[in-house]
């Protein structure tokens, strides 16, 4: 077995079976994705639409593609034919465009609402009230081709595990508080290479792991 296969196997063995593993393959060549595919991995996460579309074109069609990065409204059309889950939805305008493009492709596209949990000022994501307002928006019922199935969050980039834990616990409580009223909210996407064990302790149902599988990324 090579490194990718060894890493993947180790991670799969260490996470509970009901936690979904998204292999984050951004910047990595399709040969690396194929190595993971041949070990049985079928869910891949990318953060750039063009890169994801190119990989989708080249790779087996039973792969489930997750868009984990920020999405610009004008690019939704390029992934609408195939994307399975969009993790970082943070506006009604974006949801409307996803719905429109999904309809054109005769599909329903699954989405997560990105919630701001990090201490650092981030441009993206909703606070809890904004997320509730979005879920309660009357016009959302007209969006028949999007399905909001949960929440996504990213903890502060810090070495302090207590802070990360506090942030994960905060999104977990919010997630739990939504479920009685919005039973479709089932997925909690938290946890990356550095903090996925903590995230799972805090109730993650989906982890997004890149460098611990594929090695460090090389940005040019
Ligand atoms: C890159 C990325 C990941 C994976 O990060 P690693 O630390 O390499 O595991 C997870 N989530 C998002 C949103 C990312 O952009």
UniProtKB/TrEMBL annotation:
Keyword Cell inner membrane: no
Any GO molecular function: pyridoxal phosphate binding
Domain Alanine racemase N-terminal: 3-217
Cofactor(s) recorded in Swiss-Prot or TrEMBL: pyridoxal 5'-phosphate
Keywords carried by this UniProt record: Pyridoxal phosphate
Pfam family, one: Ala_racemase_N
N6-(pyridoxal phosphate)lysine carried by residues: 26
NCBIfam families found in the cross-reference section: YggS family pyridoxal phosphate-dependent enzyme (TIGR00044)
Family membership noted in the UniProt record: Belongs to the pyridoxal phosphate-binding protein YggS/PROSC family.
Role of this protein: Pyridoxal 5'-phosphate (PLP)-binding protein, which is involved in PLP homeostasis.
Protein name in the entry: Pyridoxal phosphate homeostasis protein
Organism (species): Aquimarina muelleri
Lineage, highest ranks first: Bacteria, Pseudomonadati, Bacteroidota, Flavobacteriia, Flavobacteriales
């Amino acid at each position: 077995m090579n490194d990718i296969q060894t890493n993947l196997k180790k991670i799969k063995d260490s996470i509970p079976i009901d936690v979904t593993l998204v292999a984050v393959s951004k910047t990595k060549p399709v040969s690396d994705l194929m190595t993971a595919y041949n070990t049985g991995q079928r869910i891949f996460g990318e953060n750039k639409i063009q890169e994801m579309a190119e990989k989708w074109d080249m790779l087996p069609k039973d792969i489930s593609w997750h868009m984990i990065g920020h999405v610009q409204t004008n690019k939704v059309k390029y992934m609408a034919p195939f994307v399975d889950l969009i993790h970082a939805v943070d506006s009604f305008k974006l949801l409307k465009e996803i719905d429109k493009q999904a309809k054109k492709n005769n599909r329903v596209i699954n989405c997560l609402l990105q919630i701001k949990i990090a201490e650092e000022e981030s441009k993206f994501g909703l606070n809890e009230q904004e997320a509730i307002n979005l879920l309660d928006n009357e016009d959302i019922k007209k969006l028949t081709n999007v399905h909001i199935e949960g929440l996504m969050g990213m903890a502060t980039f810090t070495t302090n595990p207590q802070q990360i834990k506090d942030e994960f616990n905060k999104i977990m409580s919010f997630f739990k508080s939504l479920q009685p009223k919005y039973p479709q909210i089932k997925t909690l996407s938290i946890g990356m290479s550095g903090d996925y064990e903590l995230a799972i302790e805090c109730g993650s149902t989906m982890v997004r792991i890149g460098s611990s599988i594929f090695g460090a990324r090389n940005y040019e």
